[in-house]
Amino acid sequence: MLVLDHVSKTYPNGVHALEGISLGVAPGEILVVIGGSGCGKSTMLRAISGLDTPSRGTVALDGTIITEPREEIGIIFQEPRLLPWLSVADNVGFGLDGSPREERRERVKRALVRVGLADKANVWPRELSGGQAQRVAIARALVPRPQVLLLDEPFSALDAFTRADLQVHLLDLWAELKPTLIMVTHDVEEAVVLADRIMVMRPRPGRVYEEIACDLPRPRDRQSAAFDFVKRRVLAALDRSLERADVTDAGEVKADQGGGLWW
Amino acid sequence: MTPVAFVAWVMSLFFMTATTGETERAASAKAPEAAPQLAPQTLLARLAWPTLGLVVPVTLAAGWEIAVGMGLSSGRLLPPPSVIFDTFLDLAATGELQRHALATLSRVAAGFAFGVMAGTIAGAITGYSALTHRLVDPTLQALRSIPSIAWVPLFILWFGIFEASKIILIAVGVFFPVYLGVMGAVISVDRKIVEVGRVFRLSGPAMVRRILLPAVMPAYVISLRAGLGLGWMFVVAAEFLGASTGLGYLLIDGQQLGKPAQIVAAIVAFAILGKTTDFIVATVSAPFLRWEDRFARS
Prior knowledge:
heterodimer, A: 263 residues, Rossmann fold, four-stranded antiparallel β-sheet, 7 helices, B: 298 residues, mainly alpha, 2 domains, flat
């Protein structure tokens, strides 16, 4: 159980990025955080990962307060961030340095098979496409079998087809080990495809604005009415969070249609 | 004998340049003068491409030989290549060439080894630790500006006139480019990559070993080659005073005995040895840089 308790973050240059974030994420839950730019989504993720520490408040995983990166929490960034001097296999096995060589090779092989890149094990990162590199990054993050996996806009640098592919792929990977997923995105459709719960944040300073449950059965049909309904709710919440349009809670839009103007 | 030997000498330079050219394109992190991806692909053209580096020296040497042969110059102050080559043979016949070349080479090798070790460690530490950087770097930068000749009297005073002072002098020369290269490269390692190390909870030494040093490898190789070049310069300074062996000694000896051919022969020997050692460093380091995603590819 991951618990954030009144987490706030002000950067040394005075930017007040987060204010009073309190939330709990159950084990195995998929939480998607969405919001306009400047609402502290990445800041919150970095605070959870331990890369940055909050100015106030605490992040706790199963009772242990997080102050620095831990093995139980993996993170995937917007860029693949593969180490260019290591082959794909060595990149994937990077976190397994203490393990015996045979075990490491086995786990790396299985991880590469899971992301569909078993034939690229001995290839340099410079030879991979964007989608392939991001899949290697996912494999690398999953190999240590983390309890919590954080994803900071992992697919935003990819084209629409690759993105849709990787969303499905991520769900498959998640279904195996059921880690807690916390993902930041600005793609509303991606949020509705993946999330159990969608958290809309508002900026200046970053705060939680609204939480929208999404308990559609998986696999989710992007064309279904239920999908569309949740999507409209999220878009409306986003518009309202930025005080852009006059919208009711049920998703009926009075003025603006939303969807594409909020970032 | 002489013309045949001369041609053999040119061919050996050709071979070295041909292989050096390919390795240099593989190992250097900056674009070479000729863009290799535009190089012709036929076998003959590929062999001819690296030898372009020989065109200038061979033309100048041949031109000078002809000029002296035709009587346009006495060739006293700058002996023609044939005389230089004869001097080489004479020195080799008596074993002098080998003795002096080996002496210089071993001094450079020892000084290079020490200088690289010290420079790498110092550069890694000052690159990684901001506090150490603030404490140590200003002093080192000041020391770096001192020219090689200025150290010689001090080192002779401290370490004597035998091998120790010379090797330490060369090590000082090698130290600074390597230190600067490693430190600058460590400081400018991409923060995003360093964060990967933090996510995987690498300790300080592990971070340096597994992330910082591999990331700086291309810049490191360049600083090694720069350090080697300075090592060759510093060995001359060391051998100018208080040496009885070495190519620098041959230089001074040629000046004092009025043998310009010996002077030029020593200079040519420096050039050949310097080029060869640089080629070795470039070749040995090439496999460590195969991963690079860069403009110039082998």
